Amino acid sequence: MTESNGNTNAVHPTSRLPHVSPTFSIATRGVHGDDPIRNYTDVAPALHVSTTFRYSSDPDKLIPSSGLEDDRLELGPTITGDAHIYSRESAPNTSRLELILSSILNAPCLTYASGLASFHALLVYLNPKVVAIGGGYHGCHGVLKIYQKLTKCKIVDLFDEKSWDAAELGENDVVHLETPINPTGLAYSIVHFAQLAHKRGAVLTVDATFAPPPLQDPFAHGADFVMHSGTKYFGGHSDMLCGVIAINPKRANVKKDYWAMFQERVYLGAVMGSMEGWLGVRSLRTYELRITRQSQSADRLVGFFASCLDSTSTSPDAALVQSVVAKLGHASLQADDMKPWLAAQMPNGFGPVFAIWMKSKHLAKRLPGKMVLFHHATSLGGVESLIEWRRMSDDTVEETLCRVSVGVEAWEDLRDDFLQAFRTLTEQHN
Ligand SMILES: *Cc1c(COP(=O)(O)O)cnc(C)c1O
């Protein structure tokens, strides 16, 4: 595309760097995934705010857009940092982000204005007549209802196969799985739902927001399309909205899928701003450090509270935790699923989000206000630890549920923060 659209406004347009090796670790790809388009001498990427880009002054290089054949184009975000036309189509900072994401996710990626915008784009592209969906993020159900308003599609229960067959879910329909699921952090088998979808000719889409790589690779277990709210771990600093669609590179028509979604995005207009592209690249430099640390800390916190809830524990901490906490939700606690599929699906940790069900609504509503290191706020995935009385944003969940998103602080400090908050709750009765 660099040559074909005639834009050559790069500083060093010929200094293409070697392709980033797919054998590099995720940590290395986060820092070097965009090396192939580092056309400038800046070490930290510049922020490009232009919406429009100059064409070539060489008339021989002016090829009208109708003359472009998608087949000729390399797969993936080939808008190589110096071939942009208009920023609703592509822009330098966003392309850079997409190149790194495609390297980290091992699949061609497109970014969108938000996670929900990406889910909308996926439905618009796949155009299913029937969609099977379970619980999970309430906003995705909201998007699906809008899609249903326009298309009269049928919506059936992911966990009730009979309802799929009653609605004749089949060829080109969508089975949508979120795992681990919001807000409980529990995991479902991707292989299982891939088999159920594929035997009917349907497509499996996975919302993998809660466990991006290296925690989980849905493509390795049969997903056709993966979506992420990049607002969460890819952004990681609670300061940017972003959605990501990754397409399984083994799909027969992966190029067609990519370019059709690319073209539809031009018209849907749901692109990220350049500032978000720039922030996203900044974020991905430290992505692997953050996600692994946050997930490890969550595993430790959950392990600590689970041992406290064990009825045989006799420590003072255990008595305190038992007096206020009813139960916990996190994939690390799914002992029965571990051997059959979960250990293979999540080999590197179970994600930084977990749920605490308090013994009463009274306690759940008050716990967030007693925390010192955790903000009482919605969202997740940032460097700051958050806790939310989940009823604030989702009226389908129990009133006793608090959702916890573990940040990059030391886990021992976070544990002690919970203990002091529990102590305060047991001492106060207001
Ligand atoms: C946050 C979230 C979304 C929506 O993402 P936005 O970027 O807020 O639009 C979708 N799915 C899950 C699982 C989420 O946590």
Automatic annotation (TrEMBL):
Transmembrane segments: none annotated. Its cofactor is pyridoxal 5'-phosphate. Keywords: Pyridoxal phosphate. One of its GO terms (biological process) is transsulfuration. The keyword Phosphoprotein does not apply. Residues 1-12 have a biased composition (Polar residues). InterPro entries: Cys/Met-Metab_PyrdxlP-dep_enz, Cys_met_metab_PP, PyrdxlP-dep_Trfase, PyrdxlP-dep_Trfase_major, PyrdxlP-dep_Trfase_small. The modification N6-(pyridoxal phosphate)lysine is found at residue 232. One of its GO terms (molecular function) is carbon-sulfur lyase activity. PROSITE patterns: CYS_MET_METAB_PP. One of its GO terms (cellular component) is cytoplasm. Residues 1-22 are annotated as: Disordered. Belongs to the trans-sulfuration enzymes family. This is Cystathionine gamma-synthase.
